[in-house]
Design brief:
Length: 344
């Protein structure tokens, strides 16, 4: 037997109850239709005493006659069978949700086994962390769909129970409390009303726990990605420091190369001076290279200030101060109105 709450079984035919009362014969005919595989039909048949292959006993016949006196009782039995299915459905939701929560606890325990070293955490994230959280996210999505479907069905069952209870309270049958079937129907409808609301509360509770778990998983993924980005930024910063060092070395040697190129091959012409060979351009070369190198390094170290100064000069040339855009060539609206008003 399948449950109409189980979405895997596909669409199930609705349970319909039709009846007709024949006054001259004092006979009420009930027609109950539904899917033969639906456990709701089999449960209703058991409650009414219809067993396959067996003829009902005299006691069961009396109970059937008593139940037939109130069509609301038969409808209430149908809702009760659906409620039993709903309880199994909520139990399945609970098991699936708790299974994912336990996996989140296992993730935390596995993560704490690693040190706080970023390399170890990245190794954990690469080996099992990301795959585990991806699986938990997928399962929580399925749990979310299951909860939403259950809440929609429960809400419809609550509305249906309230409609039947309101119709029973306003029917002439409810004004005969001395009948046992009337009292049983009233008690069963009251029980169903409270039970359906309890089922809805359980589903809301599980949905809240699911949202909390989903937020934790999302935050765990975000924090891990942030840690990886920070580590990458740290490595890029180290690479940037290396590039700065290379730049400084280049600026130290590049002016000397440039000056030697300007002096061309004159530095290689030598003359004998007091027992050793020296080029006549040696000292001019040294006194030119040193200031030139210092000048280039100063430009590089003060490049940020020079950029701001150039921006300020550029703004002054346009007649607008960066600090006060209303100065210079730009006039306020009131000044323009005064100038316009002075013209004849």
């Amino acid at each position: 037997m399948s449950s109409r709450w189980d979405n895997k079984a596909g669409p199930v035919s609705p349970v319909s109850i039709s009846f007709r009362h024949i006054v001259p014969e004092n006979l009420t005919v009930y027609i109950i239709s539904g899917d033969p595989k639906d456990s709701c039909i089999s449960s209703l048949k058991d409650q009414l005493g219809f067993a396959e292959g067996f003829s009902p006993s005299e006691y069961i016949r009396l109970e059937q006659r008593r139940s037939a006196q109130s069509p609301f009782l038969i409808v209430a039995h149908t809702l009760q069978a659906s409620l039993e299915q709903a309880k199994d459905y909520v139990a399945i939701v609970k098991d699936r949700l708790m299974g994912q929560i336990n996996k989140v606890d296992d993730y935390n325990e596995a993560k704490h086994n690693y040190t706080e070293d970023p390399k170890d955490l990245q190794r954990f994230w690469r080996d099992k962390g990301r795959n585990l959280l991806e699986a938990i996210t997928e399962q929580l999505h399925l749990v979310s769909q299951t909860i939403d479907s259950g809440m929609a069905n429960t809400d419809m069952s609550i509305k249906l129970t309230d409609i039947i209870k309101s119709a029973f309270d306003s029917s002439p049958l409810a004004k005969s409390p001395q009948e046992s079937v009337v009292a049983e129907t009233a008690e069963l409808l009251e029980y169903l009303s409270h039970s359906w609301n309890c089922e809805m509360n359980w589903l809301r509770t599980y949905k809240a726990r699911k949202d909390t778990t989903m937020n934790f998983v999302f935050n765990a993924v975000t924090q891990q990605d942030s840690a990886i980005n920070i580590d990458m930024a740290r490595k890029m910063s180290r690479d940037s420091s290396s590039m700065h060092a290379i730049t400084i070395l280049t600026m130290i040697f590049l002016p000397a190369t440039f000056v030697s190129g300007v002096f061309n091959s004159g530095i290689l012409t030598s003359e004998k001076y007091e027992g050793y060979v020296r080029s006549p351009l040696f000292w001019p070369y040294i006194w030119t290279v040193i200031p030139f190198t210092v000048f280039v390094l100063t430009l590089w170290l003060t490049r940020k200030r020079l950029e701001r100064a150039l921006e300020w000069v550029h703004g002054r040339c346009k007649g607008v101060s960066p600090r006060n855009p209303t100065r210079g060539g730009t006039r306020s609206s009131s000044q323009k109105e005064e100038v316009t008003g002075d013209k004849p």
